[in-house]
Protein: Ribosomal RNA small subunit methyltransferase A
Amino acid sequence: MNAPARPKKSFGQHFLHERRYIERIVAAISPRPEDFLVEIGPGEGALTFPLLAAAGKLTAIELDTDLIPRLQAQAAGAGELSIVHADVLKVDFTAMAHRAGMSHLRVAGNLPYYISSPILFHCIEHAAAITDMHFMLQKEVVDRMAAEPGSKVYGRLSVMLQLACRVEPLFDVPPGAFRPPPKVDSSVVRLVPLAADARHDADPARVYAIVKAAFAQRRKTLSNALRQLMDADAIRLADVDPKARAETLAPMDFVRLAKIGEEKAMNVDS
Structure:
């Protein structure tokens, strides 16, 4: 039997090992044989092999070359495990689904906490090709993802994810469930991309610019925070108070601001 892998700080590795939490995560995902499952960062395979046993096939994205042979050896006879050696931020999930002849895939993983937000933003860029996502993340990040307007932790991540997905925190996982134990509590969250008819129709890049500017300095009023993008009159046209602060706005308020800004820009160009 192989000795346990040595976690690498450079990859932010914390290997999940406690069986009851593994079983809860697999139960939450509820994998089926017809699913196209993609796991981000399989590590030692704590989730990989229960998922593989349930679905019969799985694609894992792993950057650490030292872990790949171990996973391949363990997978012998366990099912169809495909390992993609890549940085997940460079993986085109939409193309991956199409190459497999599938319209959608399901994504899961214990994400490296130091790059969890970039991974989340990358995934929502491919939301139209994803059925759902189940991730283990730092609890503080999950709290921000699910935060409502007015909350101290409501911010850019909250707005951008909630405009793309239904965010459902599931349960917390203590540090002792990992090797080595992280210094923070973790949480498992389910993200379900919104149906096509429920998604906003504003320019995503403009929405992102509005949200980023609005939250860049939280204590500023919108008229000050957005002054490089739109004036107070334009903010009012979006049915938003220019004296309000970003953390008081619902996600769709930012969409209206983006659409007004887009209309203004088109009028100037014409």
Remarks:
- The radius of gyration is 21 Å.
- Strands lie at 15-16, 37-40, 57-62, 80-85, 105-110, 130-138, 165-173, 178-179, 186-193.
- Residues 15 and 179 are 5 Å apart (CA to CA).
- Confidence is low (pLDDT under 50) at residues 7-12.
